[in-house]
Amino acid sequence: MEPRTTGMQTPASLSGDGDAWLASGLARASAALDSTAPILRHLVLQEDRDVFGDAVIAHVRGMVADVARQLSLALCEAGGAGEGVVPSEIDVAAFSALLCGNGVFLAAMHGQALEWQLAQRLEQDHGVDMAVAPLIADAVAAQDGARSALAMAVLVAQSRFCQAQRRMQLPLDELPQDLFRIALGTLQAHAHERSEQDREEARSRAIIAERSLRLRFDAERGRNALLRRLVDALPVPRDALNPLRAGPALFLTALARAMHAPREDAALLLAPAQMARLVLVMRSAGVDGAALRATLGVFHPETVVPKDLDAMPPETAAARLAQAGLGA
Amino acid sequence: MAEEAIARLQVAAGGTVPGLLAIPALLALVRQVAATGLAQVRPVVAMEGDCAIAFRAEAMPEADGIALALHDWRRAAAPDEGLPPASPQDLWYHLAEGHVLLDARQNVIAADLAAADLADLASDLSGAISRHWTACSALSLEAGLIDAARLHWRLLDDMVVDVIGSPRRWRVRIVPRVASGFDLLLLPETILALPAGWQASVAPHETGGEEALPPWTSFLGRDLAPVLRQPISRIIANAETIRSRLAGPLADAYGNYAADIAEAGRHLLGLVEDLADLDAVEAPGFAPAPDHIDLADCARRAAGILSVRARERGIVLAVPEDDCQAPAVGEFRRVLQVLLNLLSNAIRYTPAQATVTLSCGVDGAMAWVAVADHGEGLTANQAARVFEKFERLGRSGDGGSGLGLYISRRLARAMAGDLTVASTPGQGARFVLTLPADVPSAGIVNAR
Is the predicted pLDDT of residue A309 greater than 60, yes or no? Predict the structure, then answer.
């Protein structure tokens, strides 16, 4: 008689390929099971409705897909395809997955979606023009020629950004340098995912695509770089911390500068859960009580800030942030 | 104390005048301003009966109380009405291929023109910064508008203009921005796929007329057909889903509408395919790839493909016997296309319960395959016209484009053969496709 196997034995191992396939599949299954409960709880309770709202998530998806589409298009063109070629949906999906796999990139897209939400909110509720904010208009009209030219460049970039955001698009050459580098990195990663015999050709196409995209890119011309330069060029950079005067774009840049963090962190700082931190960041940047209250009234109209915070010196505010592990 | 509108709202919300504020959001605002002593502005939505009112409430502390000022009073969508209806402006922003930022006096601040054929206008606008947009010479505006600087923006909105350098016409939409100034949007008024590699330098005004453009069919065939195929297929597929009630039960009338939609979609798709073929066969370098084929085999395959449609109409398809062969030289795919066209015509125009006969053979240097039906037949006059482009012989509403036979004959002739018709009125038509015989293996093998 043949020996009978009992239930708890280690299963006989398959060939290398089959084993790896099963292992990765099971790991994914287990991760999916683990994350079900927290995701569901989050969706049902909607703790941060604005930060993870349907519109924001759809916007993130749209922008990631747009970047993925441009990368696929660059690959098609590197393969000699002419104008008007439509990249394959499979390639676009693969690039989307690669881009979402990068935490930095995804966070930046989220920040961008939150910025768009902020721009719409300021325009609808407070009548702040999302492209021609008062502070930018003043800078354009300023006697200082360099500042006026810079403000004009910001205005053009911002108006183009708004038009692209309405269409949930994000042109590759508008990306900040680090995100652009991440996007280019996915070209090689994508080539690596191809089967053995296609890989060499895919790699050389990726290199051609990367080179032609790099040629079109100019980091200094990007909107974020222009915004940073304009905040520095303002007579009183702190003015840009007033959202109703500075408009969404300049305000977020100034806020990111005040907290010494990337812009997407500044966008998250406006969520209800972050209110205390927002107050401390503004105080540490030297914003006085009345201005602080005005800003808070924009984002959290129901809240009453304790009066004694007005007297808190900027250094104390910064120290308090650092103490909570939230400082720069 | 309250003005009339706010007093009415107060009463509608169940309060009295004078009395405690009955609108909860306003009450909260006033209490907060009282607590902090600081003025505040807040957007508020309140219900007056069934009607939602939206406004901006400004609360200012005063010596003996708090003054409330309400701005931007307007009717809002009720909170449970779901999403607000999309405004047409959103659509304009999505469709616009040019976007110009104007200040309050309609002077140009900045321009962003995406379309390649707007390049002339883009360079013109960059020189027109701080001037009225109508001063742009690349916009061919009527002479009466030269003094447009004094015109109200509403009088300039929704105007159709020509732009120098662009073969398209453009609609100008002017949208006021929230604080001051305007967005000027350029929406293409002409639907036209730009040929690949379009350069502004070949614009009609420079080369002296329409001749510079390829004929319209090539736009349709080469550029439009690939774009149309997918959406039309989706329309058909969705209509079929509705018709077959896959998504749930449905009244019969709606099922029939869905069937009509699917049918019209198929007609449109057929037209698109025909136009794509027309473009291919009329292209100067068109040459089918010749191959060794058997016309009897082609005939049997074509009959197999259309057997269901024939059965639905009660038509019998008689095909060549299995041992019959007619070797020829031609491109298999194209020969099958010609036969499918002939056969579907025959099925369409033959009365029900009749027979359509497919026969083939080799006659000297030429092999032939014939499709004979028992329809009304054609008069000599009709037979002479039937292969002409867009010829419908007075028929309409049956799903034909009038291109099928024209394309078929072009294909036959491109393969060094021909497509002819022999017909007697009342006795049906017999279409014969001849192709060069595959000579080494040719014999006289006639069937049927």
Answer: yes
Q: Give strand pairing partners of B113.
A: B98
Query: What does the block give as tokens for B340?
Result: 């499918």
Show the 3-state SS of chain A.
Answer: CCCCCCCCCCCCCCCHHHHHHHHHHHHHHHHHHHHHHHHHHHHHHCCCCCCCCHHHHHHHHHHHHHHHHHHHHHHHHHCCCCCCCCCCHHHHHHHHHHHHCCHHHHHHHHHHHHHHHHHHHHHHHHCCCCCCCHHHHHHHHCCCHHHHHHHHHHHHHHHHHHHHHHCCCCCHHHCCHHHHHHHHHHHHHHHHCCCHHHHHHHHHHHHHHHHHHHHHCCHHHCHHHHHHHHHHHCCCHHHHHCHHHHHHHHHHHHHHHHCCCCHHHHHHCCCHHHHHHHHHHHHHCCCCHHHHHHHHHHHCCCCCCCHHHHHCCHHHHHHHHHHCCCCC
User: Is A188 an interface residue toward B (CB < 8 Å)?
Assistant: no
Do the chains contact at A167 and B94, CB–CB below 8 Å?
yes
- Listed residue (B231, B99, B341, B50) closest to A131, CA to CA: B99
CA-CA distance, B405 to B338, in Å (whole number)? Answer: 8
Q: Cβ separation of B110 and A159 shorter than 8 Å?
A: yes
Residue A120 β-bridge partners: none
**Distance in Å, alpha carbon of A270 to nearest chain B alpha carbon:** 17
Which residue is it, tokens 């379309």? Answer: B115
Instruction: Compare all CA atoms of chain B with the CA of A299 and give the residue at the minimum distance.
Output: B42
Nearest chain A residue to B54, by CA: A125
Which residue is closest to B36 within chain A, CA to CA? A304
For residue range B154-201, list pLDDT tens digits in order: 778 888 888 888 888 888 999 888 888 899 999 888 765 544 444 443
Name the residue among B324, B350, B315, B340 with its Cα closest to residue B423: B350
pLDDT of B144 higher than 80 = no
Q: Which residues contact B272 (CB under 8 A, 6 or more apart)?
A: B220, B224, B225, B228, B229, B232
Q: What is the pLDDT of residues B254-289, one digit of tens each?
A: 877 888 888 778 878 877 777 777 777 777 777 777
Q: Could A131 and B101 be called an inter-chain contact, meaning their C-beta atoms sit closer than 8 Å?
A: yes
Q: Does A160 touch chain B (CB under 8 A)?
A: yes
Q: Inform me whether the C-beta atom of residue A221 falls under 8 Å from chain B C-beta atoms.
A: no
Show residues of chain A in contact with B56, CB under 8 Å.
125
Tokens of A38: 């927290």
Q: Which tokens in the block code for residue A28?
A: 């994914």
Residues of B in contact with A132 (CB under 8 A): 101, 109, 177, 179-181
**Average pLDDT taken over every residue of chain A:** 85
Q: Which residue of B has its CA nearest to A245?
A: B179
Which residues 168-197 in chain B show a CB within 8 A of chain A?
177-181, 196-197
pLDDT score of B12 more than 80? no
Chain A residues touching B43 at Cβ < 8 A:
124-125
CB contact under 8 A, B179 and A126: no
> The pTM is what?
0.57
Name the residue with tokens 């580098």: A181
Cβ distance B196 to A83 less than 8 Å, yes or no, reads: yes
